[in-house]
Amino acid sequence: MPETSPATTGLLLTGGGARAAYQVGVLQAIAEIRRAAGAAGGGNPFPVITGTSAGAINAAVLACGADDFDAVVAHIAQFWGEFRAGQVYRADSLSVIGSGARWRMLLGLGRFAANWMRVKPRSLLDNTPLSQMLERMVPLDRLPKLMQQGHLRALAVTASSYSSGEHVTFFESGTPMAPWVRSQRLSVGCRISHAHLLASAAIPFVFPATALPMEGHTEYFGDGSMRQSAPIAAAIHLGAQRIVVIGAGRMHEPREAPAPNTHSGYPTMAQIAGHALSSIFLDALAVDIERLRRINHTLGLIPEEARAASALRPIDLLVISPSERLDVIAARHVDALPGAVRHLLGGSQVAADVKGGALASYLLFESGYTRELMALGHADAMKQREEVLRFFGWEEALQPQSTEA
Q1: Contact 238, 156 (CB under 8 A)
Q2: What is the distance between the alpha carbons of residues 25 and 370, in angstroms, rounded to a whole number?
Q3: CA 230, 282, 207 angle in degrees (round to 5)?
Q4: pLDDT digits (tens, 9 = 90+) for 171-221
Q5: Do 371 and 356 form a contact (C-beta atoms < 8 A)?
């Protein structure tokens, strides 16, 4: 009988600003498990890599180091472990307070029409430092050679067009692949650029939109988590037959006991924004996972002969997501935010409220917070060690027995 070729494994890294540090801890654990199983010489475990929002940046860095998985994971971990907010957005008081004052003027005064015409603010924060960091950190020019050498099959990042309302997956592949079009979402084959990463990670209202070329014209794009109804779809379209999904929030958030006086007053802007961002970043992934698992179950009821005659196939999923609420963790680190940003978000009220902490959890690009998320990601993945081994088909290496009496 002919040997069965190994299934193509895809990786999906979801969005969530600073929450993406969690993914790095999971990747560290997967690399550690692979080494312990003696499978580290097997090349890149993820030929198809897809990402959204901050997950798109992690995905791109990982793809650019696909010829040495362990080394690139260590590189990403070192970077996230030393993070500072100033590397992502301008955190000086003049920049933040100036931007915040413009927004508060527009939101809080009745002369909004005249003020809008005069001021026209584009975002709450200036992410110019992130743009500069991407140029230094992500060597995208390596991708064509890595694909030619067989280390990587495809990289895809997603963004949402403010101009057309479409959800767009931009992909670069080593072999020609037909683009796909679905309701309100489509794909574009192209060379992935730093502008694509900046667009995918542009949290709505917080960071400015990014201009990208689209079929001979320019459209403005924001965070890829917006209007993303099927986060897993891109990896499937690019040929993945099994997919590792690393989330940036719990799939099913438990109800937390409210803190004293939490419901006594009108919600702050930080509370409202945190609630909105959690809906954008967390809800679609959980729904898509449930949908795919239902499809897998249904396909399992169809006779194998009938299934073989169709284009349908089950997709094996390994889902690793936080076992703790990241907004609760963020609330413990709010004091690490730049003072001007903390003041803009409501000062001490942010730390006192989980919903306010939700917004902070996306902006806390500070090492104390990111290291705690990385440690949680590593611990959560190690708890699923046996599942990881089964998913990849790795066998735990036998430890040498002691010769001591």
Answers
A1: yes
A2: 10
A3: 95
A4: 999 999 999 998 778 999 999 999 999 999 998 888 999 999 998 899 999
A5: no
